[in-house]
Design goal:
87 residues, 3 helices, 4 strands, alpha/beta, Rossmann fold
Length: 87
């Protein structure tokens, strides 16, 4: 089992650090409206293991989402790009 958080800006690594099994924590950032937008950012924390990532990508496929792996950094990828355009 994995623990997935839908945070759009909090550190997955920081959240996982307080847990017994931080290697099983991933970020699972959907975009609104979730039913329409296909993109899903999967965030790998510093301790997230390969098995947890594989599970996360498997869930994304079952949900018919286009998943991209992103680094655990403030605002992840899409929100960082969006803030540049919005000034």
């Amino acid at each position: 089992a994995i623990l997935a958080t839908n945070t759009s800006s909090l550190s997955v690594t920081e959240m996982a650090s307080k847990l017994k099994n931080p290697e099983r924590v991933v970020g699972f950032h959907f975009f609104n409206p979730v039913a329409i937008l296909p993109l899903l950012e999967i965030v790998r924390g510093e301790q997230t293991d390969d098995a947890s990532l594989a599970t996360a990508f498997g869930v994304a496929r079952k949900l018919k989402k286009t998943a991209v792996l992103v680094k655990d950094a403030p605002a992840f990828v899409v929100n960082r790009i969006l803030t540049r355009f919005m000034g």
